C-alpha cells in the first residue's frame, strides 16, 4: 500500500485554521505561543498514518495505549503556565517532543521525556530522553516548569523534587474521574494545584495514586 501523500499547503491551511478556529476562541492569547503553534509542524511528530488529522481538535491514538493530547488543551496548559524565555522546562508524556518544540520556539531550554523511542524530529535546544515518565530527568534539572501531556492523579515524589522552588506544573489532573486542566506551584516543597477547565485527556497510569489496602 502506498503512503498517503499530504499536501504542504493543505497542512499550512489546517494549522492556521487550528489557531483561528480552535485556539483563539478558547482563550489562548499568548502571542509567542500562537507564533510557535503556527511555526511548528505537528504532523512531523505523528506517525505517517495519523498526519492527515494532525490539526483536528481531538486526541490521536499513537498505539500501545498512548495518546497525543488534542491541540486546544495542550495550548491552554502552556498559555496558563506563562512560560518565559530562558526558563528551563521538562515535558513528560506521549509526543513530548512536539510540546517541547513549542516551548523551545518560545525561547525556553527544554527536556522532553517519552517512555517510548520514536522517530520524531528533534528541535535545536531540545534534549530528548526515553525512560519512565514518573522518574523524570533529574540530571537535567531543576526545572522552572514541568508540563505533563497526559492526565495524572498525582505528580509523584521524583518530579516534585525536580521542580525548583516557586516553579510551575501544568497538567491535566484527574478528579472524580474527570481530567481538569490545572496549574500548580511549588511552595515550601509542596505543590498546590488550581484547575481552570475540564478536558478529555487520556490518563497516564504511572501517575495514579497508590491503591489503599482494603479488607
Task: Give the name of the CATH superfamily.
Answer: Vaccinia Virus protein VP39
Rg from alpha-carbon coordinates: 17 Å
- 3D shape: globular
How many separate helices?
5
CATH architecture: 3-Layer(aba) Sandwich
Distance between the termini: 55 Å
Give the amount of beta strand, in percent: 25-35%
Spatial ordering of strands, largest sheet: 5-4-3-6-7-8-9
Overall helicity = 10-25%
Topology order in helix (H) and strand (E) letters: HHEEHEHEEEHEEE
Main sheet, how many strands, which sense, barrel?
7 strands, mixed
CATH topology value: Rossmann fold
What is the overall pLDDT average?
92
> How many separate domains?
1
Characterization of this structure:
The protein is an alpha/beta fold and 215 residues long. The chain has a single domain (57-207), classed as 3-Layer(aba) Sandwich (Rossmann fold), CATH 3.40.50.150. The protein has helices spanning 8-23, 31-39, 71-81, 96-105, 157-162, and strands at 60-63, 66-68, 88-92, 109-114, 126-130, 143-148, 163-175, 178-187, 190-198. Helix 2 (31-39) packs across helix 4 (96-105). The longest helix is centred in the N-terminal third of the chain and has 16 residues, at 8-23.
List the helices and strands and how they pair.
Elements: H1 8-23, H2 31-39, E1 60-63, E2 66-68, H3 71-81, E3 88-92, H4 96-105, E4 109-114, E5 126-130, E6 143-148, H5 157-162, E7 163-175, E8 178-187, E9 190-198
Parallel strand pairs: 3-4, 3-6, 4-5, 6-7
Antiparallel strand pairs: 1-2, 7-8, 8-9
